[in-house]
Structure to design on (567 residues):
């Protein structure tokens, strides 16, 4: 099945306009990993609030006088991404429960690797203070040094290791 | 002038804005094909460079928009959030994310988007992401020193490279167009039958590439808004058609002694000079800070005359003209700068011009000298006012 996607340059232009609108209106760019962090912080706080408040990592986000960690900009933005992605899939007829991977990988292995990849990506995003959207894309748009370094590190390491993981994709 | 947070858009409304921006973000990501991990991974194997095209186009579009909006004064570039740099954590984090990208086939934003249309592997990626943050949080004490190391602040890439903003913007555009060209050639070699780039008409893309490169060239010659406006108000023709109200030292002294609240002294001298001697009730302002929103509360009350005080008349005049050019009203400059004020008021010498008012003037100045010197001394002894906590824009992940 071949589905038609938007011309990548046009899509990039629109993505740039969305990012520009975010910066122009709210003074900050797009992000994703921050929302995932907020969800974890809120969960840990809900399950074991003493542990969260004493932790040097969660402690800075929870406690007396702090808003609910879910009431943050990126959580709302990511909720929007879910809605927007769904609408786009609906319009283009791509709503389907399916897994996607290289031709030589079984679905269960694909799930396992997706979960491992997700965990690694999140850990990396904590160190870099953001992922491809928050650190690399937004950082580049505002000409932050960190944005360019993070972008080069992500893609640089990807190219170096791609060969060793080729069975996952080709 | 943007951004509209925090003045025009409250924290609550900002969350609603975030939701709408997210909808647009998710929609574009999905339309671009970022919900497909095979497409995303293709950039590393050469069979599909969609990610690179979208990513670079978006970065160049947003950067160009920011630079142009700032140049025309629609966006206060000082107020927007610039991701601070922690050098080593950024590199190590980026490398780990590269592993995550190849192994998982998504990045966090695209995984959420793909999960929204039912991609089961994307849901596993999101789940793994949650566990990853949890693991990071639990073991945080082991690497928190590294996590906080090499903090360089919110530095800009062109400063790090020691080149101008415009030159860097041009270079980024050239690198983007070059990368588009080269990757398209690679893609067609790796993927002879169904490379995504086969859908493009080459001629259209050559024209677009040339157009974007031209835009980049423009950035080299685009000065900063400050340089552009300063040059404008200093030009001879501008000076001929625009003037600034002049306030004499005597009038200013009178109004200061009277503790009039319709006067605001804006001291444009260097902070060291200001620390050594400051007129009562004055604020110290540097030229570079005039262009943002930071000083708007002080400068925008029309009923208050803003008296610009420089070291010299030329300095005062440039600053006053800049303020008028930026749309502020009721601006005046102190005649002869602070030096003249010192000579006439603070350390007055009796003078006789032969006018019958000489005696009155001398009496007033002697008086003013005492009162204002006392006011200055009192202000120095006062506890320095605690600077108002700026409501900074929060950002980052």
């Amino acid at each position: 099945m071949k589905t038609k996607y938007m011309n990548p340059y046009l899509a990039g232009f629109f993505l740039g306009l969305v990012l520009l609108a975010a910066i122009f209106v709210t003074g900050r760019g797009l992000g994703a990993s921050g929302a995932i962090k907020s969800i974890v912080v809120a969960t840990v706080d809900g399950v074991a609030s003493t542990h969260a408040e004493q932790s040097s990592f969660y402690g800075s986000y929870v406690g007396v006088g702090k808003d609910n960690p879910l009431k943050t900009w990126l959580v709302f933005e990511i909720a929007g991404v879910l809605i927007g992605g769904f609408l786009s899939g609906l319009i283009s007829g791509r709503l389907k429960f399916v897994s996607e991977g290289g031709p030589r990988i079984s679905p269960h292995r694909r799930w396992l690797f997706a979960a491992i990849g997700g965990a690694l990506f999140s850990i990396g995003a904590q160190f870099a203070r953001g992922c491809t959207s928050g650190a690399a894309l937004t950082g580049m748009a505002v000409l932050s040094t960190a944005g360019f370094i993070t972008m080069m590190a992500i893609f640089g390491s990807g190219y170096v290791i791609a060969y060793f993981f080729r069975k996952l994709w080709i | 002038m943007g951004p509209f947070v925090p003045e025009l858009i409250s924290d609550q409304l900002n969350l609603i804005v975030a939701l709408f921006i997210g909808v647009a973000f998710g929609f574009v990501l999905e339309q671009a094909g970022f919900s497909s991990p095979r497409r995303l991974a293709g950039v590393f194997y050469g069979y599909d460079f969609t990610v690179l095209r979208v990513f670079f186009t978006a970065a160049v579009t947003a950067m160009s928009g920011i630079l142009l909006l700032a140049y025309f004064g629609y966006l206060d570039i000082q107020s927007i959030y610039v991701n601070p740099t922690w050098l080593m954590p950024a590199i190590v984090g980026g490398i780990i994310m590269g592993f995550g990208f190849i192994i998982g086939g998504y990045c966090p934003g695209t995984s959420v988007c793909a999960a929204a249309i039912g991609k089961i592997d994307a849901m596993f990626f999101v789940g793994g992401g949650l566990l990853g943050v949890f693991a990071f949080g639990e073991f945080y004490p082991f690497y928190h020193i590294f996590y906080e190391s090499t903090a360089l602040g919110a530095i800009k890439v062109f400063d790090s490279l020691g080149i101008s903003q415009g030159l860097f913007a041009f270079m980024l555009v050239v690198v983007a167009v070059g990368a588009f060209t080269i990757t398209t050639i690679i893609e067609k070699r790796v993927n002879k039958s169904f490379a995504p780039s086969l859908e493009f008409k080459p001629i259209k893309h050559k024209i677009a590439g040339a157009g974007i490169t031209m835009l980049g060239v423009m950035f080299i010659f685009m000065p900063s808004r400050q340089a552009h406006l300063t040059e404008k108000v200093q030009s001879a023709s501008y000076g001929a058609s625009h003037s600034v109200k002049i306030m004499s030292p005597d009038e200013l002294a009178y109004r200061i002694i009277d503790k009039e609240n319709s006067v605001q002294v804006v001291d444009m001298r260097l902070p060291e000079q200001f620390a050594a001697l400051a007129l009562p009730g004055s604020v110290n302002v540097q030229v570079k800070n005039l262009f943002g929103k930071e000083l708007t509360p002080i400068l925008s009350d029309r009923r208050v005359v803003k008296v610009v005080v420089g070291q010299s008349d030329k300095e005062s005049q440039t600053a006053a003209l800049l303020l008028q050019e930026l749309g502020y009203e009721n601006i005046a400059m102190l005649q002869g700068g602070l030096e003249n004020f010192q000579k006439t008021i603070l350390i007055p010498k009796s003078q006789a011009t032969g006018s019958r008012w000489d005696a009155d003037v001398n009496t007033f100045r002697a008086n003013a000298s005492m009162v204002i010197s006392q006011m200055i001394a009192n202000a120095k002894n006062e506890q320095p006012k605690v600077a108002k906590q700026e409501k900074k824009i929060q950002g980052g992940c």
DSSP finds seven helices and no strands in chain A. Residues 99-170 of chain A form one domain. Chain A has a mean pLDDT of 92.
